[in-house]
Amino acid sequence: MVLYFSGTGNTFWVAKQLSEATNEAILSIPDELREGTLHYTLKDDERLGICFPTHGWQPPRIVRDFLHRATFENVHYIYAVTTCGDDMGYAMRILRKELGKKGLSLYAAFAVVMPESNVCFSFLHLDTPESEERKIEAARQQVPHICELVKQEATGVEELVKGPIPFTYTYIIGAYYNKHLITDKKFWVDTDACIQCGRCIKRCPVGDIEGLPPRWKHDGSCTNCLACYHYCPTHAIHWGNMQRGQYYFNRRGDQK
Ligand SMILES: Cc1cc2nc3c(=O)[nH]c(=O)nc-3n(C[C@H](O)[C@H](O)[C@H](O)COP(=O)(O)O)c2cc1C
To answer: Helix, strand, coil: what percent of the chain each, to 5?
Structure first.
């Protein structure tokens, strides 16, 4: 079973490959939170995979909430993959701790560097088409290797990209970011540019948008994955006053 969260498609692309390689079901964490029983009994030979984007050098809050609420039975092997634009700090340490609270162990952990989706920091920029291409090409080489290790149920594996100051990233900057800046209150829509296509509503993984032009519910469900911002076909959705471009996986339709 591969459980995943993805805003702009990078993590879904990785999770899908893992699901195909292991021949195990792929389940969306937001869908499970909405509709599932949150009780999972694995088959005897089934592995448990958790795939998520790094958000502020931590696992997104929705992933932590899910793990907090879900119960798992008959688990013999757990692996996790995070996708990140640059580095993931100690995100896996946090995941490991969440699993530990359930008496579960993480046997293998991986980070896959993918195109950047964060537009919320002034010092961050989306990738150029060239660096986007380079990252995806490198990920194309890396993901089959991860699939192989997962199929072999390799243990004690940590192939991570923690960055130069992971403690500061995760527990100081990331802690502040995840506590105070995960909000839908900074989104706004340029109503002249909005064509009321409803794509933002469809793409929001947590159902935080209602009405057209879009209105965010401000009900605490937003994970700041930026799917609404990036998938908008006219770039009518903005986050604060950031002047940034857009990205989502396979935007040009040339990736498989
Ligand atoms: C709110 C937010 C925070 C992010 N924080 C980080 C980060 O701390 N480190 C990093 O390398 N990338 C960060 N990113 C980039 C994403 O982790 C990366 O683009 C990821 O592959 C997106 O996955 P998705 O397309 O499945 O949503 C962040 C992206 C968003 C939207």
So the answer is: 35, 20, 50
